[in-house]
Amino acid sequence: MKKIFAIFLLSVLLLSPFLSWADNNSAIQYLQAQIQNPWITQSLAAANINDLNINYLNAQEQDLLKVAKYLLTLSAVNSQDYASMRTLFATLNSHVNNGQFGDASQLNDDFWGLLAAGAVNKAGDFSSVKDFIISHQNADGGWSWATTGASDSNDTAAALMALKETDISNQDQVIVNALNYLHTAQKNDGGFAYDATASSDGASTAWVLAALNKLEIDQSTWSQGENTPLSFLNSLQQTDGSFLWLPSDTQGSSMVTAYALLAILDKSYPVNRVTIPAENNNGNNQDISLRIEGPTNTICLAEHLTASNVLALVVEASIICNFTYQITDTEYGPYLSEIAGFSGQGLNGWQYWLNWQPGTQSADQAQIQAQDEVLWAYGQFSIQPSKVEASVDNTGHLSGHLQYYDQIWQDLAQATVNVNGQNYVTNAQGLFSVALTQAGTYPVYFNGSEAFIRSNKIYLNYGAKSVKLFCKSLILVMSILL
Question: Is the pTM above the cut of 0.85?
Fold first, then answer.
């Protein structure tokens, strides 16, 4: 009986997919000795290694794929650096363009953007990205890194992992077709090739195995005779713990090792998930108002915002007011080069005013406090802010005053003010008046010019109770198209 039990136990040990793995510890030690990067960090985190070095992360990164990898990395190590995660997620969100991430001709940015959103439990916010990915599945069931490219196993695996961040089931025809495609990339050695015409390699096999893990599919059911994806990866490990990319290689690859170890550990992407808590600033920089004036319309009008600087305020408002933006790194610091599709052209560009004072430093260095007012506007460097004030009495007499700011508020003469769709010109003192004859709500604003920014917009009620409503009195943030 003891002999039978010993034989049974030995069989279990030999057949177990984890215990049959040659040496996880040597792979871990090998990766710890390498220059750290997001792929290595995620692999080591999957192996439950703590105190990992992530000093290479930059929360101000603007490149979409790097931002996605950084979010995946921070979640993998269960980071509590929520400030960096908020910043990175806001940047990720800013790359959404017409329902997809980043470049509309690429797909890999959509795969990894959706995976990064999933890492912070936000994948549900990007259902349009799921639809974009599905709409670009090739006829053979696979995906490429580009919308018009031929299918490959690596990107198909990434697409599967991304789609599983949504509510799609394994029985969905999209998933079934993708798995059928992956079968065509599997070789007799149990491994997977980049595509049907190539030979098995370690990276492709690790990516597919990670996708099977995500789908909770037992890799042993994907055998070729006695060969499985796991046995193929096992054959690639070297004495130093590294894994080869190709069986014919003479030296292991740190990247393939990172991919392989994670897959062998029955892990996938994201390795872990973190929910970013609501920001608590104890009122130090809350209740900030923002107005963004584009060349043709008001892009955003928001109140009660929370941010530490003028640039971060735009990032936060982009989510609320649903506009895109682009930040360009320059030798002088980050430059807000585009908002809502309007980018700098010739002498025109974006600039900011803090409490009506023109910006004198990089927007990321301009600190803001509670009750501050921030204005962003598109125009030439010399353009100046304007504001309108108006009231109406119970006889229907509407009177107003238009001013512009140049160190102090000054009268804006001979300017056209719009009152309920009708134009009125200010006098030498910037004053205007209108005799109202019908009850109603009257919007009043100055639409701006080459020299002056569009003013605030106010609404005056006449006919029942005279009420003066400035836009800044709105409780809920909103976007207004004039």
Answer: no
